[in-house]
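Progress report, Aim 2. The chain analyzed during this reporting quarter is listed below.
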Amino acid sequence: MYLTVARQLAVMAIIVIVSFSFSRKNAFGKEASQYLSRLLLYVINPCMIVSTFDVEYSGQKLRSLGLAIGVSFAFHLAMIVLATLLFARKKSSQGQGSLQGQKSGRVEDCLQGQKSGRDSLSKIAIVFTNSGFIGIPLINGVFGSEGVFFLMGYILVFNVLLWVWGEWLMTGTMRPLKVLANPNVLACGAGLAVFCLPFKMPYVIIEPLKMIGACNGAASMILLGLLFSGFGGAKEKSGQGQERAAPVKTFAKPLARDVFLRLVVCPLILLGATLFAMQAFSSVSQIQLIMSVLFIAAACPVGMSVSSFAVVFKKDADYASLLVAVSSAACVVTIPLLVALLELFLR
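Predicted structure tokens for the chain:
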């Protein structure tokens, strides 16, 4: 399986490189990436999700999806606990740095305040993977639509916790009702309704959804290439509010730490949980497929939602973009190795 994963990642990487080269040459701006991002979020992904559920109803399959949702919640909870414990020690010192950065015009204090904001982004980056833009085309290429069906459980939990715990990290408040407005959550709800229907959707309705949803893989990689082409390196603001290039020492260590935690530490911890779940639910006929899908989703790079949150909540957007870029490039190596390790334990 790891060779199949590596091959699919190589295919996806080629599309990213083509998109990157074309976008660099034509100097596309933020408008193009924002348009494609919204198209994926509000049109392509929801269509793909709904069309994935257009299969014959099966009580066993519904129970398996429920199991995928439960395990996905456990995975996210474990990563939330890990991220919280890792940054618990810094809370008091960073709070002082942030307050000093607001009261003082000194560059050092402003940088300390920015570091406090970065740690919130780091927590989100450690927990929430790119299970949509990278996970969906990867799982579809390796396991087909059946694998994507179980991936929906992970994506559902992802979106709920992102807009509950993730927003709480950014603002100190929770708006659970905001979850209901998320297009992917709505699509999962609509998909479940379609799955439970005693008949399959009419061809003239489901076929357009399938055709639009089929664009997910290529469009996601094109968007990554487009975003990378516009990435110009991290910047920070001086005490006078002027932007300047950030010295490497200000982000090299946290970047290496966060990428390592996201791509290596978290997947290795969840590998144990994956093997335990396979044993505990061995009576489930598709348990190996379900857990392989969830493990790969949990091993994906930093989610692009980290960049979105950084922009929306006025955090360090440049650092967030750097996290997405570096982890996305590194996952071409880490994911096949992790899958090979999983297969080694399954022998």
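The chain has 14 helices and two strands. The CA atoms of residues 101 and 110 lie 4 Å apart. These observations will guide the mutagenesis work planned for the next reporting period.
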